[in-house]
Amino acid sequence: MKILVTGGTGYIGSHTSVELLNSGYEVVIIDNLSNSDASVSDRIGRITGKTPPLYIGDVLDEALLDQIFSEHKIDAAIHFAALKSVPVSMADPLLYYHNNVTGTLSLCRAMKKHGVKNIVFSSSATVYGISDDRPIGEDAPLSPKNVYGNTKLMMETVFSDLYHSDPEWNVTLLRYFNPIGAHESGLIGEVPEGIPGNLMPYITQVAAGLRPHLNITGTDYDTPDGTGVRDYIHVVDLARGHIKALQNLSGLGIYNLGTGRGYSVREIVNAFEEATGIKIACEEAPRRPGDLACYFADASKANAMLGWRTEKTLHEMCADSWRFAKGYYK
Ligand code: NAD
Ligand code: UDP
To answer: From the CB of 13, is ligand 1 less than 6 Å away?
Structure first.
């Protein structure tokens, strides 16, 4: 089977491409390199022995999509290509709606034109917005609190409406919790743009000596140690969830991909220090506006229906994040 991976040189797309190739799928990548590097496809080749063809271009470019679907007999697409910064999405909503939502419409049109009706989509736990339900199940209320989350919910709506208009479509929406970690080879991983907004990329920059300390944003939450709790998932486990999703594509499916357990910021810092032997200087800082104290997935549906389970430990998440970052920042 041949899979079109949009955004396949990005963080999650590259790890998923590795898992696809290792599982015997063929992979074709389209990426405009707005947040990644062309060398990633060679790195995927070094890991798997198979370098996937990379089309450098935009999913908004329907002529290019037409060309790809004409040149390859694609069986399914996994759609990662999107912009993902919450603050940038608030500052420039038109950019985010155009890139993410219009880009998705463009992909769907091209797929429909070429009779390819199988898609796995990268959604996000941000579609749930603020919720007191813990753990969060797929039927929790949907109420994104920022423009990025709005684009994800709109894209989910596009896919489910498409399915309802034509049940020949098979659509799986995967709602990711907090991916961290990297491939154990250290060849691919997450490269943050500018000052990292997320916890693990910030920690690795402190470890690399690029930043003096980590600001712990919120130490007075109603959590065991006062710091925010999230469901961190190793990106390789997440990537493997996409293989299971492809194997089980049937009708419309919606699944959380998380470990089902939360760790606090202080637990992450301690685990990182233990895994790497590097001390992370920390300072207490105010809460980030709009942050939740604690959320983590109810992943039982993906466990039961997809036969998927996370395998990697927090220690591996930290050690693998650092192995990649150390090589990248040296
Ligand atoms: P990433 O930025 O590393 O990868 C996205 C890739 O898509 C990049 O290589 C970028 O160059 C490409 N891209 C963006 N817009 C494009 C376009 N219009 N045409 C072609 N290529 C385009 O991000 P990631 O962390 O790998 O995220 C992948 C997907 O997962 C995204 O849809 C993101 O919203 C979603 N997601 C990510 C997280 C996370 O924490 N990383 C959490 C939940 C959901
Ligand atoms: N966090 C922190 N310092 C940082 C970045 C994040 O203390 O520099 C905290 C944040 O308040 C939250 C947790 O780490 O409790 C995870 O934040 P991240 O942005 O990685 O994920 P999200 O909150 O978007 O799920």
So the answer is: yes
Residues 77 and 112 grouped into a single domain: yes
Number of structural domains in the chain: 2
Structural domain boundaries, residue 276 = 199-229+262-295+320-329
Distance, CA of 172 to CA of 301 (rounded, Å): 13
Tell me 127's DSSP state.
Answer: G
Taking only the tens place, the pLDDT of each residue in 6-60 is 999 999 999 999 999 999 999 999 999 999 999 999 999 999 999 999 999 999 9
Side-chain half-sphere of 167: how many Cα atoms within 13 Å?
1
Cα(223)–Cα(294) distance, integer angstroms: 7
pTM of the model: 0.98
Q: What is the CATH number of the domain that holds 209?
A: 3.90.25.10
Does the Cβ of 288 fall within 6 Å of ligand 2? Answer: yes
- Atom index in ligand 1 nearest the CA of residue 176 equals 43
Distance from the alpha carbon of residue 292 to the mean position of ligand 2, in angstroms = 10
pLDDT(132) > 70: no
